[in-house]
Amino acid sequence: MDKLKFLLIEDSTEDVIIIKRQLEKEFQVEMKLAENESEYKKLLDEFCPDVILSDYFLPQFDGLKALKVRNEICPTVPFILISGAMNHEIELSTIKSGVSDFLIKDDLLRLNFAIKKALEVRKINEEREWAEKKLEESLHRFRSFVENDISGDFIGNYEQIIYCNPRLLEIFGFRSLEELNAFGAKKLYDDISQRKAVWEDLRKGKKIENRELKMHTRDGKPLYILENAFSERDEKGNIIQIQGYLIDITPQKEAETSLIDSQSKFRALMESTAAGIVIYDSEKFLFSNPAMCRLLGYTEEEMLQMNFWDVIHPDHRELVKQRGKARIARNEVPAKYSFKVVTKAGETKWIEFTAGAFQFQGTPAAIGTVYDITALKEAEFEIKKLSVAIEQSPLSVVITDTDGAIEFVNKAFEDETGFTFSEVKGKNQRILQSGKTPPEVYTDMWKTISSGKMWKGEFINRKKDGTEFIELAIISPVIDNFGNIVRYTGVKRDITEEKKMARQLLEEKAKVEEANRLKTAILTNMSHELRTPLNGILGFSTLIKDAESLEEVKEMTSYINESGQRLLRTLNLIIDVSRLEAGNFTPDFQELEIYSLIDQIIEKYKPDASQKKLSIIFEKQEEKKTVKADVKFLNDIIENLLDNAVKFTNEGNIKIEIHDKTTKNKKYTVIEVSDTGIGISEKNQKLIFHEFQQESYGYGRVYEGIGLGLSLAKKYIELMGGKITVKSKVGEGSTFSVYLPVN
Question: Which CATH architecture group holds 495-584?
Fold first, then answer.
């Protein structure tokens, strides 16, 4: 017999020995002893006994408490109470609590029998529990199967349904069996004769197997049903009930209908589509639609006799052949690519081919869609040529969307602006604006191009490095086949240098025109300045012959002298200018007393000033002042300034001042000649030091002279290392300052 594990709850050593000896008579014993509750619980968990033997009375623990613990932890382990005294009430209470047996210590002969009986009962109980568990599991699986069956299961009779699963209710649209029976199962048949035929066959003992019926839901929605059923009969052969199940095949029927419809549409599509469609295996064409036949010029019968690579152009034949075979073998190849084919007439065409592998009539095959892209390829070639032309164009090309965002620029744009395509892509062309282009230019541009017309104009833009440039732009809208503007194209050219050259040409032209005008004026002035005194000399010389008195002769002689002096002054000015231009003048620096030089010049111009009632004021800050200069140069400079002051002043005075001044660490003696005359305009202040330049020209001018005085004065002072400046305001007078270097 197998070894049994006994857990004994006993505080008497003698009783332990007696009980163990009794057990060993029939069992192989492994025993553990517990004297209190904690030891008992621990041994129940660790020792896992086959039988528990317990004294009823213990000092700190009793048998009923031990039984209660057993019931909680291991209720199936046999529990036998062994007591020193018998009490009917105790025996009843323990039996009610689940004790396996109750023995008296004085009578242990029945102990082994009680253990065997308890173990047998335990075995029977465990087998029963196992059977009940298996039955419950089986019932649960059956219920689960029925409840979750995809077919509608039912049990019923001719009058009503006794049981059905949820799927049957779902098929017909009912919420409960009661609702279904209230509606009436017979009403769910489209043709009641089909139901009668089913019941007639069942009465005859036949099974109904996958019989197709036309039924409907409670709402009238059509259903296609497969019914399977059999009859259950009593010993006399009478039908007790019908069992069966229904399968809803409506989706399959609808799919079949849809498939037939799809096949019909597919055939129509194959016949009418403009795309070529072919089916081929690893060698031959298996199918070709009319569009493919039209494209290649073969009949379908001719194509079915050909290898699929026979129509491929030699340039691409081997590539297409390899890819076609690889696709049939389900290897990885491009699903879409382009190549050339040759028609029956020998014409070469480009096609775009899209293919995929599939099973055709049980054979590995591939289906391909073909589009004739010959015109597209030719257009691509033209586009490539245009693209190369645009890329190599010296003109800047910009393509934008309708909002002005940049989509493309060529190399010339990058070179011209300094921006790369990646830097400007998606950005508005406003990034080039300098802010100097008038707003109305942009307004006119958008108004023109948004109306579908071409616009031409100029922008003042800014490069990436901030350099401004002028750009001539021609912007055109790109219009699609529906007349919609889809983008704008701009062709631009940097015309900064051209503009600069144009300005220079205009300036040169203006200078030439001014020179021509000046030449005419100079010739006019020269003619006037030479002819007027010469006419006076000749005229008075003629009159002097007829003079009747000495006074008349003297008067005429004075006029002749005055005209001669004027003529001589003009000739001297011209000669001095010529000598300066020839470089024949070199300053002869000498120490000279400037006050006395100016006094002499003033005396010379006093008569003319007095005649105009002008006063000449010479302010001296000291008794004398010495300067180092060329006497002739300085004399001519002061004479010219004083001559002009008297000539152009009609009232007021003329003042001469001399003072020292240091400018930029350089010392000068400054001679200032101021007048209250007519003044000089700001524009002409820049011209009066040029040769032959005056405020007025021609015979209509008010003041005589040929415009060489100030030009000579400027050249003289510059030869001596100095400079001359002017400050003037029209109607208020002028101040000329001569800067004479001290050293």
Answer: Orthogonal Bundle (1.10)
